[in-house]
Each structure stands twice: as C-alpha cells, then as structure tokens.
Amino acid sequence: MPTSQSADTEPPRRLLRRWEIDAPGSTSPHGSAHNGTNPHNGAEAHGAGLTDGAGPGRRCWRVDTPDGAFFLKEYAEPDRRRLRFRHSVTAALDEEGLPVLAPMPARGGRTLVTAAGRGYVLHPWVGGRGRGGLELTFGQCEALGELLGRLHAALDRLTPPVQQSLLIPTPRAADAAAAVEEMLRDVPDDGDGTDFDALTGRRLRERRGLLAEFADHQPPEIEVTTVGHLHGSFHAGHLRYGGSGNVTAVLGWGSLTTGPVAGEVVRAAARLFACDDERGLDLDRVQAFVRGHRSAFPLDAGQIQSAVHREWWERLCDVAPLRHRYLGEDGAAGRGSAALVSWWSAQLDRTLDAFAAPYTAVYADAPGDSPAFG
Fold this sequence. Notes:
- By secondary structure, this protein is an alpha+beta fold.
- Helix content is 39%, strand content 12%.
- Helix 5 (195-213) packs parallel to helix 10 (338-346).
- It is globular.
C-alpha cells in the first residue's frame, strides 16, 4: 500500500490478497465523502452503488493493479444476510447478460470478506459517463425503459415471490399542512427578512394552498397491482453510458427492495425526465420510456395511472425537500423541486393520460406513432 496514506484511510494491508490481488499499484479513497465526486458527471465515476458507498460507517477505494482497476467498499457493520442476497441477485442478473456488476468472489467463493469486524466487497471498476435523462434521444429513452423492463422481468424470474397484497401507507395532507404551518412560523413575514426569506414564504404558502386544494385527491390505501423485487433507485446518477450511447452499467443496487413495479416505472421516469424549472416533466420522453418498459414487462394503463397518482401525492405531501432547500435542514433534496410539484398538480389529468398513453388502444400496436417520435 502507498505509504503516503494514513492508516485510517487505508483498507487492511493483507485484505486484497483474499482476492488474490497481491501488489496493487495504488489505493486511493473514492466517493463524494472523500473527494467531492459528482456521480452525475465525469467519465471516471464508478459508483458500484454510490448511494450505498462512501458515507457513515462506509468507505470506498479505487484499487489500481497491473491487471486492471477495482472498486473496494467497506461496511463497518455489515448486514450479512442482506448483502449476500443482494450479491446473489446482482450475480444472477450479470449472468443473464444485463449490465449489472456482480461482486467478485474471493478465495473460497465468498463475495463478502470480513477483517477486523468489518465487511469488504470488491467490484470491477467501470468507466463510462453519466447522462441526464433530458440529454437522451427519444429512441434512447425507449431503450432505457426497455432495459428497466428487462431488469424487472429478470428479477421476477430470479427472486422469490413477493406477497401480492402490500399495504403502502398513504401520507396525510393534514399532516403535511401542519408541518408547513410550523415552518412558516420560522420565516420572517414582516418585511424585515431577506429576498430568500420572501421566496421561502411564497413557496411554503404555495404548498399549503395546494394541500388544501387537493386534500380530497388522496390515493387509496390498497390497490391490486403487480409487485416484485425492484432496483429501488433507478435514476441518472446510477447509470453509466458507453461511447455509443448504450448503458454499460446499472449501479446503486444497495437500494434493492420490493414493491409495485408500476411505482418504480413512474418514479424512474419522474426523476429522469423532470426539468429544473416550471416546465415540469418532458412527457414525450416519459411516453417513450414507458413504451420501452411495456415491451419487456407489460403492465396495464390502470396500474400506471395509479402509480402516477400515488407518486404525485407523495411528492405533494413530502415537505422534506422544502426543509432542505429553504430552511437548510437535512432532507431528501433530490425528491423533486417545489416547481415540479406545482406543475404536476396543475397538470394532474394530463400526466395521468400521458404516462398511460403507450397502453391505450391508439398506441398499442403502432410503435412509431407515439408523440415522443413525432
């Protein structure tokens, strides 16, 4: 190991020999916790799961060797059962020919290696670049939706069945409105605040008004829907593209979960194709994406519309991004901007129809007629 690194930033010296890596040329800390890497940019960001990589109790390293580069991840308190299941899933997906990076087995075949009470997982390094969803052509959007559908189909075949009746708690508008009122008490409203205070107050009052206006639009608690194992965090930061524009790696499998498949389709589309301003969602790209998914894992228009309804409602009732953006508190900043919530609320019927369009009779057997290809 390089002597220039302090012991508290190095993996154990003999650890890499467990994978028969005897002489690494260099080992360097990797991830946003170490060097400010932005997973959305850069041709070198690996992220064999950046969201479950560097962070509290987890460190990551890039390991360069004469045989190539690797990505080493440490878990201070590894959940062995969960990690082994995840590894079995990603290995099976890799064997299916999907762009998923299986962990590398160490001597003896184990993919989770322990040393000094900590767990370590080694992946091959992956290059490529990140691309935002709005950078993709309509054809690439459809191909990306098809890839997610292929992942869902493979997960359905390769994992144990999931209980079909899932109770998904529905947020309450009254609870969200009460939280907004509490936040408003901390914002100066007497004209003595800053311009940012004025913007904060405007956004909070806007959300309060939407919660009151749409209080009777709450989705039902239980719906009949197709459920299964899901990637859990399918968005631009977890996708790497090659020079030809094809996806070379789907990362972020630390979020592997179970739930409604349509919900993941809608969440992915909403994160991939949202503008950062009042333009809302690029619905042409959304339709291309859903069409691609339908070709590999068909659902139906009703499930898609129910998922759109729920995703909109959860965003409407989620005040954590407001706390993060305007009050500087910890929160899910990536969930979606306040502008998107306002746009989506104003366009709710339109989005319900647009997401479901690839399943309607007018589009069902005419792949070239979608407005996304116009």
